[in-house]
């Protein structure tokens, strides 16, 4: 085992240690199976350590080995002192008896998921696909490089890179990997990306358990994991796929909180939304929409939790320190590709209506270009319809959020300064993928809910 | 009974739809699995490259890797550079090539203009054709040279 392997091992051990420590105050220390808890710990560790290191980088602390170790120790120490009221109850849906066929479906789904994950690891271990998406070498990895060589976020270099307005969570963590492994080694990043992707899938499995029988959840996750664009993007060290993980995780957690009222899921959703906000600008935007629909649904369904739901609306504020840094550095805080203020100019909007309709048309048609995505969307739609009959508020919440997120992205293309064809060619499939991943992950939750005759509170 | 919600809609219809959904998901997943497994299997059978080769090899699609390695060795980390690309032979995507040098040579900074750079990477053209005075010429293999620019106004080489 060489320095690189040891460094990678140590870095991942720290992510896991932070994640496991954070599970206790979140209320997940004893939830789920050992394997789903490991996935959740990795995802949460990435999020919590990422947010802490990003804030540290903003105030000038470079993600060196000592800094990461100290930050990790502080987080672990803090989690032992945080005392939040645990859930007094655990909710269980009464699963439909699928019998032998259910066991078989779960077994096939689990097998497919395992093989797809191992194949992704085997490919990532060679590291050859790190430039698979041009954005990786155009700005995501160069930003990590800049932080690594600049011992922090170097203003001049940062300003010269594409999309300097994007928050630096992913580049900061990647710079940490370079420190741990003793040099700028971009070929190590695909393995990290795949580990996070597998952790995400395990997290979903854990979040669905209790409401969705594994006869439903494992086939659904297997279908998502083997969808070609999702599987190949597991390898890419760019923010888009990682944004999809955190937004989707937050959506499943908060919808589950909406269903059962278990506070652990609210806390988890809160943490994942903050991470999404600091991963990419769209994270704050899509997260705000999610928080808004959850607030409306909670107000309608369980008013006693409305004040908690309002807290979700605050998660996009996590971007404020980064915006202050940008202002201090004299770097524009928004993309030059669009002006949000154009949304308030009816004349501009009317003149550019074709951009909105064309974007929406492409976004609605894009999933049907290949049959794997088509099946995800068709099954998700069917799940929405059947759950709408039995749990209309939940189904309406999911449908409203997906529609608002897709419509919001189309609105960005509407006010964009680049030709709409550019967005269609370069942006829709990456950014729009978040909505499809989230819909695919919510599908088994909706089906499980629709199938449950009773949802029982176990004292 | 507190904590229990009774739902009344026919569960059988939902079960049929759920079963169809599971079947569709499994068919699609199983159909895609062989190609993904083969990609993983092929990678597993491939020898793992040394870390530096692993970093560099994927860039061969865009630029001569020998030129990248030798340019990094020739140009000091604190120096600035520019990339001058010629047509002998033509380069398919000059802007992409420039970005690859930027990527690989960081923290060395690309200043764009050869006259303002400490070093110029001369790619598929002759060093003389760049039009800047230089003191040192380092070979970058078959693709070109790196030249150290002489800056007479400042009285220094770089």
UniProtKB/TrEMBL annotation, chain A:
List the keywords (alphabetical). Answer: Membrane, Transmembrane, Transmembrane helix
Question: Is Membrane included in the keywords of this UniProt record?
Answer: yes
Question: Which positions, given as ranges, span the membrane?
Answer: 6-27, 39-59, 65-84, 104-125, 188-208, 242-259, 265-298, 310-331, 368-386, 393-416, 428-451
Q: Looking at the keywords, is Transmembrane helix present?
A: yes
Protein's name according to its UniProt entry: Unannotated protein
Q: Which source organism does the UniProt entry give?
A: freshwater metagenome
Q: What is the lineage of its organism?
A: unclassified sequences, metagenomes, ecological metagenomes
UniProtKB/TrEMBL annotation, chain B:
Q: Where is this region: Disordered?
A: 134-158
Q: What is the designated name of this protein?
A: Unannotated protein
Q: Which organism is it from?
A: freshwater metagenome
